[in-house]
Structure formats: C-alpha cells, structure tokens
Amino acid sequence: xxxxxxxxxxxxxxxxxxxxxxxxxxxxxxxxxxxxxxxxxxxxxxxxxxxxxxxxxxxxxxxxxxxxxxxxxxxxxxxxxxxxxxxxxxxxxxxxxxxxxxxxxxxxxxxxxxxxxxxxxxxxxxxxxxxxxxxxxxxxxxxxxxxxxxxxxxxxxxxxxxxxxxxxxxxxxxxxxxxxxxxxxxxxxxxxxxxxxxxxxxxxxxxxxxxxxxxxxxxxxxxxxxxxxxxxxxxxxxxxxxxxxxxxxxxxxxxxxxxxxxxxxxxxxxxxxxxxxxxxxxxxxxxxxxxxxxxxxxxxxxxxxxxxxxxxxxxxxxxxxxxxxxxxxxxxxxxxxxxxxxxxxxxxxxxxxxxxxxxxxxxxxxxxxxxxxxxxxxxxxxxxxxxxxxxxxxxxxxxxxxxxxxxxxxxxxxxxxxxxxxxxxxxxxxxxxxxxxxxxxx
Length: 442
Ligand SMILES: *[C@@H]1O[C@H](CO)[C@@H](O)[C@H](O)[C@H]1NC(C)=O
Ligand SMILES: *[C@@H]1O[C@H](CO)[C@@H](O)[C@H](O)[C@H]1NC(C)=O
Ligand SMILES: *[C@@H]1O[C@H](CO)[C@@H](O)[C@H](O)[C@H]1NC(C)=O
Ligand SMILES: *[C@@H]1O[C@H](CO)[C@@H](O)[C@H](O)[C@H]1NC(C)=O
Ligand SMILES: *[C@@H]1O[C@H](CO)[C@@H](O)[C@H](O)[C@H]1NC(C)=O
Fold this sequence. Notes:
Helices cover 10% and strands 45% of the residues. By secondary structure, it is mainly beta.
C-alpha cells in the first residue's frame, strides 16, 4: 500500500508534498524578531560597481553593529549591485540582508586572506597541515545571526582556489564560503551561494541552525565544494533547498580521527527535508569524519539527479565515534553510479598518529521508501571487521538499472539487520524476519 502510494507520487512528480499530507518545517527552531535598526552598506562607503573593494565598508558596518547594540539587533542592507570584498566576520544580533540583485563577491586576490587556527576536532586543516584560510563570511562565538534577503548572491569566485588546488600550489586549506564556529541561533534563508572555494556552509560546534530556501551552486568538477556540512553541531534543520555542486550535497560530520575522538562533540538532531540537487558524489552523506559521533539524523523527501551515490554513510577504522539512529526516507534518485552505500573503509586520515583500533560503531540506520531509476549499482554495505554494522534496516526500496529491470546485486559484509520489499534483494546478511530490531528506529 505504502509502496503503491509512493509510486503514484513519483509518477505525479509531486515529491515535495509530504505523504502524510501536511507540511512540516523548521521555522520554529530559531526565532528571530524584527530588526528595528536598519543600516545600509552604502552608509559605510560601500560601492556595488564590481571593482571597488568593500572590505572596509563591511568591517566598519559590522563593527558599528557590534559596538552600538540596539534592542532587537540591526539589519545590514545590501542594495542591488556587485560588492567585491575580502573576508569579514559577522557579529551577534544582526541580519545581513541581500536585496534582489545584490551580490557579495569574494576578492580573487588571496594574498591578504587571513589565516586562522585549525579546528581542534580536526587537529589541522582539512586539506593541508597547519592553519586554514578564514571562511569568506565567518561567525565565531556569535548568536542570533540571520543571512537572508530576496535571493541575492554570495559568490566565492572559487575558480582561483580550485586551480591552485589542482596545481597543488596551496599552502593551507581553502576557505569555506560561510562558517559558524561555537555559535547558536542562526538562520540562513533566501540566498544563493555560488562558487565556494571549498565547503559552502559549515556550522561547527554550533546549535540551533536553520538553513532553508537556499540555492547552492558550483560546477560539477569543482573540488570539495560540499553544500552544507553540519559538524559537531546539534539541532540543525535544512529544508526546501536546491544544491548542485562538485561534492556531497549535505554531509553530517563530527571531527577527524584522534582529534575528533579527543574533542568528543557529536552532531545530533539533524533534520534535512525537501532538498534536491545533483552531484558526482553523495546526495545525503554522513561522514566520513564522524569521530565525535553522529546521532538522530532524519532526511526525508530528497530528490537526486545525476549522482555519484544517492545515500552514503561512511566511516573508517581509526575514526572511532559512532553513527546511530539515522533515518533516510522518501528519496527519488534518477541516474546514479550507486544508490545506497554504507561503508567502513572510506576517507583518509589526518596523520599517522591515528589509532587503527579506534573502530567506529554503526547502529540503527533505517533507509526506506527509496525509488531509483538508472542506478548502475543498487547498494553496497561493508561493515568494519571487528565492529560489524548492526540494526541496518531497509524497506520499500526499488532501484532499477539502466537496462531494465535489474541492477547488479547488492554487496554486503560485516552487517546485520532487516530488509523488506527491497528490489533488487540486498543480501542474506539482512534477514527478512527481524521486525523487532528495526521497529526501534522506524
Ligand atoms: C532598510 O533600508 C533600505 C534602504 O536603505 C530599504 O530599502 C529597506 O527596505 C529597509 N529594510 C527594512 C526591513 O526596513
Ligand atoms: C575575525 O575572526 C577571527 C576568528 O575569530 C579572528 O582571528 C580575526 O581577528 C577576526 N578578524 C577581524 C577583522 O575582526
Ligand atoms: C527565493 O528562492 C527560494 C528558493 O528557490 C524561493 O522559494 C523564494 O520564493 C525566493 N524568494 C524570493 C523573494 O524571490
Ligand atoms: C535532541 O533532541 C532530543 C529530543 O527532542 C532532546 O531531548 C535532546 O536534548 C536534543 N539534543 C541536543 C544536543 O540538543
Ligand atoms: C532517533 O532520531 C529521531 C530523529 O530522526 C528522533 O525523533 C528519535 O527520538 C531518536 N530516537 C532515539 C531513540 O533517540
């Protein structure tokens, strides 16, 4: 019955309608009131001609917001125009408002780009040892920050950085487009993110984060341009967004090997819904950096096109940490190398000090109501030898190949759990009569 209803929805192309018939949303996770104070970047000498460097204008406007605190906070208005600038810090109780036609564009001159310390849960920059370039927009220890408007654009002009990466001429890890560290009560909505040098939106050690009605774009061949990466963060809600980049669309993380284990801050209570997009890597990902643990993730109503892997849960020996209580449901995949992959041997290590006996725990992953067409390989579940994945539950899954009707069979090892109405049939490791072990997580 469920499957039939699902199929019907699929045929109607009505994927954004919840099958329960009601629209749930994350609008109540962060409340932000009306900003009575409204200043414009032009009051600080901002010029939107695409050439003038506006670093001073942005830093002074934000300094003014920080120093002259107004009840209800301040809105910083960016009128239509192209505002070139170096990176800048955000401050608490502010709204950065991009009018229709407003573009905040990162300078391509990286010589003055500030360096900041590596994240303690990574021990070094993600790409290279040592510090890392500060994100284009950076919030450290802030609260009540909104980035919104009328779908103006934040443009990272990443090609300079991608080329340096390709030529191996970078000294430090590339900047994210927007990063919040140790922050809370953040809303990012109605903004277009374009050509990030590295990951697009990176909340880390943060809580109560809402990202909705955003568009994130980067070329398919741009390296490491993840869409949204909640990292050691809790109560994060991502919805109603389109993401098409060169790497994972959404990847939930929590630190890297011995550094992430020592820091020990999980990502928890992460909701992802009504997200669509395209990527040569994963649509919905957990990992591979999960050393602080990841739990209570719900991803639903996800539409993926021309993918590397639809759903990818990834970890490695040496990671430690845990991946628990992950639910992914109502996913439509059209064209993918692999539909579903849960793997225990993915991702690199920060250095050779990682403990190979720090084995990850993967328990309670439910993937249901997945419909895929033109999927080259349905699925792959490879647990860790001395730490098999348990309570892995698959049901109502139909992944069709390019040559109808079947894709090659699943491959499984070191896994136990339950499967029901899965086509092609997954593998003998997943039994069809353990309803009990699945029920806790469905
Ligand atoms: C803020 O001020 C600008 C003009 O500087 C105006 O166009 C805009 O509508 C104002 N926004 C709000 C929310 O008051
Ligand atoms: C921005 O924040 C970073 C990290 O907190 C800090 O190192 C840097 O000095 C700040 N830069 C400015 C211009 O305030
Ligand atoms: C901005 O884009 C979002 C997502 O595409 C869309 O839902 C919204 O209506 C747009 N808002 C405006 C003001 O154009
Ligand atoms: C996650 O959500 C649960 C249930 O709503 C809540 O009890 C818990 O405190 C939340 N965790 C965090 C870290 O906020
Ligand atoms: C599992 O995660 C869901 C969110 O997807 C949450 O509602 C539920 O409370 C969690 N279950 C447990 C046992 O923590």
